[in-house]
Design brief:
Elements lengths: L5 H6 L5 H13 L4 H13 L3 H10 L5 H13 L3 H7 L9 H13 L3 H13 L5 H13 L3 H14 L6 H12 L8 H15 L9 H15 L2 H17 L3 H16 L5 H10 L1 H7 L2
Helix pairs in contact: 2-3, 3-4, 4-5, 5-7, 6-7, 7-8, 8-9, 9-10, 10-11, 11-12, 11-13, 12-13, 13-14, 14-15
InterPro entries: TPR-like_helical_dom_sf (IPR011990)
Protein name: Tetratricopeptide repeat protein
Length: 288
Amino acid sequence: MLNCSRRGVSALFTITGENISRLESLRSEYPKATNVILALAESYTAVGNTEKALQLYQSIPEQTEEIQQLYLSVLVNSDRYQEVLNLLPESIDKLSPVLSGWRGVASDRLGQKAIARDFLEKAWHEGQRNIQFLLPLARLWAEEGDPIQAGAAYQILQETADNQFTWEDYALMARVANLGGFGDLSDEQKVDYYERCVTKAGADLLKLPISSEILKDRLELWQALNNIERLLNSYADWLHWLANAGRIDDLEQELGQIRSLAVEKRISWQQHSQFLEGLKPLIALNKK
């Protein structure tokens, strides 16, 4: 076997077609060198030739769990989830923690949420902290009302993979923060999660099933903090949500709450008028 590490072989080349050719030459010279095969498979994966990468992983005589993991990761990252399930035992007891994690990821992507949770939780309880396992598990815990567990997973992800978050994650993290999943946060810290969510999601927030929860909780936090500017911004977003949902009675009730702010002198009547002026198209539309 060629006496150099897989990391060393990979470091020899920037991944280009020419350099893949050089790795192929090395493989021809040392056909049983596992590290060369692995470096070549990773290079093919990087340039999008997943079929070639899978063939190379399969060609390795000693199919260790590490090789299995690499093979499964290629399948998952190319959306071939059913193939992952076909390769792995259905019984959770027959799977190592890491292979359980991969089965959980594939099940989650196929919409099998309850099954996925069992496999992902096994990986979690056995100390597996692979980002690809943590993201779906954090989401499942947050969606199913387990803020403490979701908070633990999301905190790890915030430190290691915050570039992987979608705007749906920011919405779920806001929920987790408000329910105590990130510990004893102040209202300022909680509302920061909501503001990040609204900023990241923009108009897409309205597509989320929990959008009303997010906007209402955000409003209540700014009320508690008595930040009038932020409160009025939150009211505007909340009223737009009510209008889009056709909840006219609730819309009228909230407009009454805003008038109360002026009566109680928490805002001036000029601020009240300016706020209503901005909502004129919305109010007119819903009076038709």
